Amino acid sequence: MRESKGYSLMNKFSHIYVEQKALSHPVTGYILERFPRAVKVEIQHYKDVFNRPHQDYRRQKDSPKLILAVKQEPFLYQGPEVCEDFGNDDFYYASCVLNCLYDCDYCYLQGLYNSANIVVFVNIGDFFEAVGKCLEYGSLYLCISYDTDLLALEGIVPYASKWIEFAGRKQNLTIELRTKSANYGAIRGLKPVEQVVLAWSVSPQEVARRYERQVPPLETRLLAAKAAAEDGWQVRLCFEPVLRIKNWQKIYADFVDNVFATIPADGIFDANIGIFRMNKEQFKRISRSRLDTDIFAQSMMHSDKGVMSYAEDGQMKDFMYRQLARYLPEEKIYV
Ligand code: SF4
Fold it and tell me: What is the Å distance from ligand 1's center to 242 Cα?
């Protein structure tokens, strides 16, 4: 497996839980070698640790543990309605890792899981097999980095590279690798693959500093995206979640200018705009525990068909669309 920069992460996990079924798997061996000082704990099933009730997500986030497990079917899930499908009917996602190294205030994962520990499913080959079977029936648009940030984890487990190499051998497959990391160097040695879209989520500095803890600064993310575009990758920019912060119009208008001053617009494959929104149940669950952020201030929110968003989300979408349309043609902007 390919090495990559990421060794500052190597002291991150004090304990690694390993499912009995995962013990002899090569990916397990690869990861355990990277953490020689971590205490290894054998477990029967990852859910015994990950799904335990009454866990303190916030405390675990300060010192997450790693869990290595074998995923059982299903390997692919239908794309959720709240996510942009970029015009693809055959929209699916796969989660070979659960949870993220970063800690954004608005992250839905804290409402989705009981635990902040990071689960790595070591049987990546079974995910590839499932995709192969699906492709026998038609084309597939697959998001592989939804419930995690795979590129940020590349120094621990090189799944971004593995997916890219896999996609390069397939027809009728498009993969979106979404990230907030600046770790492009970890995959830079690979030849750009037309079946892969590298998607960077970007936010204004004012949002990043306040709500995106541990995420690399905007400037380094933009430089990573720029380098990828120059190397010939299809680069997507995801302007989401757009937050209704004080002076949001000025802040986001300046931000869009700043983005396209760094990355020439003609190097961008496409872009999307997503106003902050979240499943109502997850929103309620998170808002009970996150009194340290104003993201979940319900007075600004309304609920529509089980989704929480700002009452003015239509107006916000229009505003953001107009900003992007100054740089990108209509067909490259998804709202
Ligand atoms: S980068 Fe994405 S997945 Fe990771 S904490 Fe932030 S919002 Fe959540």
Answer: 14
Q: Give yes or no for residue 5 having a pLDDT over 50.
A: no
Distance 136 CA to ligand 1 centre (A): 33
Q: What is the pLDDT of residue 297?
A: 77
* Residue 148 CA, closest ligand 1 atom number: 3
Residue 7, pLDDT above cutoff 70: no
Domains of the chain: 7-334 (3.80.30.30)
The four Cα atoms 167, 168, 172, 174 give a dihedral, to 10 degrees, of: 50
Please, what is the average pLDDT of the chain? Answer: 92
Q: What is the average per-residue pLDDT within 39-66? A: 94
Pocket of ligand 1 (CB under 6 A): 100, 102-104, 107, 109, 149, 180
Q: Tokens 């912060």 map to which residue?
A: 245
Q: What is the pLDDT of residue 334?
A: 95
Q: How many of the other CB atoms lie within 10 Å of CB of 20?
A: 11
Torsion from C-alpha of 261, 263, 264, 265, nearest 10 degrees: -100
Q: How does strand 301-304 pair with strand 307-310?
A: antiparallel
How many Cα atoms are found within 13 Å in the side-chain-facing hemisphere of 3? 5
% of the chain with per-residue pLDDT over 70: 96
Rounded to a whole number, what is the largest CA-CA distance in the chain?
55
CA distances from 44 to 19, 39, 67 (A): 5, 16, 12
The residue behind tokens 């990277």 is: 34
Q: Is the pLDDT of residue 219 over 70?
A: yes
Residue whose tokens read 């839980």: 17
Give 105's contacts (C-beta < 8 A, 6+ positions apart).
210, 211, 212, 213, 290, 293, 295
Q: Is 244 helix (H, G, I), strand (E, B) or coil?
A: coil
Q: Tell me how far apart the alpha carbons of residues 327 and 323 are, in angstroms, rounded to a whole number.
A: 8
Pairing of strands 91-93, 140-143: parallel
